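Postdoc handover notes: sequence design on the structure in folder B. Input tokens:
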């Protein structure tokens, strides 16, 4: 099978590349803005790589002969997108429209990784039938707009609303709760946390489960304009802190004023699990893997 991955050097893209290149021909597209060149080092299997901006690239050429497109290229830092709606809209929405044109012209199927952040703050656990979507950042708003564009198109698609991804890959980032808390604990930095957010729950997704979910869609042909929530579990910052504290010191700096993007909601992932998929990762396993990868960083107590 021929598979194209946009944003192939990113958090999920780099992990997908390791797995899918063993079984399929991969065309990777990335504008190298993140400068994660090292993802392309020592690849076990050859890929076709294009250093291009997905927003303007001639995707009808790249998608020729492609069976499935996995569109990961996007601005993904929800908190960091405050006040940058124009930039986020260009990177996320306009790129998705170009991907949809490319798929429509070539007949490629599309997997669109969206986010559970489209739900926003909710008082009860939500599933895919939720009609009161409350995106609370330009990032979440852009993803919801992309979902709508995907559904309105003639492209055979599957939308995956992914929980916040955590764990290790060649393109790992460290701006989300699990990643940031682990990095801060290992490097002995204080972690600022809104005092009342300690027990607020969010959906989280182990990187291995993100990869297996995308593979599952391809293997089971779960297209037909389907939408699924995908998560490993719903967790709170307290859960993360407790696990890190089992092996590392952690210093919390509790603040009274709410930080951007602090809200609580839990997501039901049973619809996707009913297709035969189940998560294999755990919050504890993902955290301990990150800590072990960073284990050779040794700082003196004087750093605290």
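Designed sequence:
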């Amino acid at each position: 099978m021929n598979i194209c991955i946009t944003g192939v050097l990113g958090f999920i893209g780099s992990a997908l590349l390791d797995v899918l290149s063993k079984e399929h021909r991969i065309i990777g597209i990335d504008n190298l803005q993140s400068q994660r060149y090292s993802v392309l080092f020592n690849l076990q299997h050859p890929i076709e790589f294009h250093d291009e901006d997905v927003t303007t690239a001639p995707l009808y050429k790249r998608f020729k002969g492609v069976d499935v497109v996995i569109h990961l290229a996007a601005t993904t830092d929800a908190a960091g997108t405050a006040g940058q709606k124009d930039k986020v809209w260009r990177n996320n929405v306009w790129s998705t429209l170009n991907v949809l044109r490319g798929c429509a012209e070539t007949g490629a199927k599309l997997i669109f990784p969206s986010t559970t952040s489209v739900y926003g703050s909710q008082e009860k656990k939500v599933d895919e039938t939720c009609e009161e979507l409350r995106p609370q950042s330009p990032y979440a708003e852009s993803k919801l707009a992309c979902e709508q564009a995907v559904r309105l198109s003639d492209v055979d698609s599957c939308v995956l609303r992914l929980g916040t991804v955590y764990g290790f890959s060649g393109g790992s980032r460290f701006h989300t709760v699990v990643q940031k808390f682990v990095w801060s604990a290992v490097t002995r930095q204080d972690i600022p946390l809104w005092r009342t957010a300690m027990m607020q729950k969010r959906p989280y997704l182990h990187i291995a489960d993100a990869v297996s979910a995308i593979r599952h869609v391809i293997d089971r042909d779960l297209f037909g304009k389907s939408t699924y929530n995908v998560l490993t579990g719903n967790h709170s910052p307290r859960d993360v802190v407790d696990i890190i504290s089992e092996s590392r010191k952690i210093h919390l700096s509790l603040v009274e004023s709410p930080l951007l993007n602090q809200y609580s909601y839990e997501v039901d992932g049973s619809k996707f699990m009913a297709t035969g998929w189940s998560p294999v990762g755990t919050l504890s396993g993902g955290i301990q893997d990150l800590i072990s990868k960073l284990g050779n960083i040794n700082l003196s107590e004087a750093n605290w």
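Context for whoever picks this up: The two ends are 52 Å apart (CA to CA). Don't rerun without checking with the PI first.
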